[in-house]
Amino acid sequence: MQVLTTREALISWRKKAQGHVGFVPTMGALHEGHLSLVRQSLTENDWTVVSIFVNPRQFGPKEDYERYPRTPEMDTRLLQNLGVSAVFMPSESEMYSPEDEFHISATRLSRLWCGGYRVGHFDGVALVLTKLFHLVMPTRAYFGEKDFQQVRIVEKMVEELFFPIQVVRHPTVREPDGLAMSSRNAYLSPRGRAQAVALYKALQYLHALTAQHQNTAFLIEETLRYLKENYPDVEVEYLAIVDEHSLEALEHLRQSARPRALIAAYVEGVRLIDNLPLSPVP
Ligand code: PAF
Questions:
Q1: 198 and 122, same structural domain?
Q2: Of 26, 49, 90, 221, which residue is least crowded by CB atoms under 10 Å?
Q3: Residue 166 is part of a domain; what is its CATH number?
């Protein structure tokens, strides 16, 4: 496995990689969720490149950029064992210059849900992915559905800006109790970890309710009541029922062929997200 730290080294590696190239962009602190994306890429491509870069532009001033877990030795060992062809681990100055002027923003998709609370977050994601896509020139790029809004934004960006890349979605990988895997789970104490399953439990509860109820205001209200009663320490930021494609809120499940519930909540000050498809609508 080649460990590449400069753009120049990546570009020269890429010139030699003939055939299909799979790309898994990450911020490191790799867990089974990332590794399952890598495994899928390895089976579908001749070469697999993984990037590890904690992208400062997607963190707000009060967010966890400094504290974000960084485990480069363990990450590279895991990727080497899986048989990854190359890992790209650039420094900040390799990716950004103080003279940079361009932004990539989605006018609507980036401002909904998580984007409303993490202002500028998706612009930072779109910018770093634009740069990485230009350097890696992958055939396919792999994203986990846990960050569902991110997946939709990347799909729309690739479609609208004509990136010759296939975006591949991978289902959320969960812990045995249902908690969605995330690098941020490492911040939780054992008590917080036990509470964190609330997000998945709430989504399951909501899903079960859809057998009887299709009015989304009722479904949301009832699920929030369930959360308050069973997981009092969990602070919900938003719970929404949206159309999976447009991410617009639905009033009634039948308004969409593919409704999906999205949730963001704080546990011990740690921001967690999850989502669940609600179709088929009964
Ligand atoms: O999902 C992530 O880890 C990041 O948002 C990504 C896609 C690697 C961009 O920095």
A1: no
A2: 221
A3: 3.40.50.620
Distance CA 77, CA 166 (A): 27
- b (16+ CB within 10 A) / e for 60-71: eeeeeeeebeee
Tell me the C-alpha to C-alpha distance, in Å, between residue 77 and each of 59, 71, 84, 91, 173. 27, 10, 10, 19, 21
Measured by CA distance, the residue closest to atom 2 of ligand 1 is 26
Residue 22 structural domain: 2-170
Q: How many domains does the chain have?
A: 2
CA 238 centroid distance within chain: 17
Task: Quote the pTM value.
Answer: 0.97
Asked if residue 271 lies in contact with residue 187, where contact means CB atoms within 8 angstroms, the answer is no
Q: In this structure, are residues 26 and 34 in contact, taking their beta carbons and an 8 Å threshold?
A: yes
> Going by CA atoms, what residue is nearest to atom 1 of ligand 1?
26
Summarize pLDDT for 14-44 with one digit per residue, the tens: 999 999 999 999 999 999 999 999 999 999 9
Can you tell me which residue has the tokens 């963190």? 59
Instruction: Return the pLDDT at 282.
Output: 46
128 within ligand 1 shell (Cβ under 6 A): yes
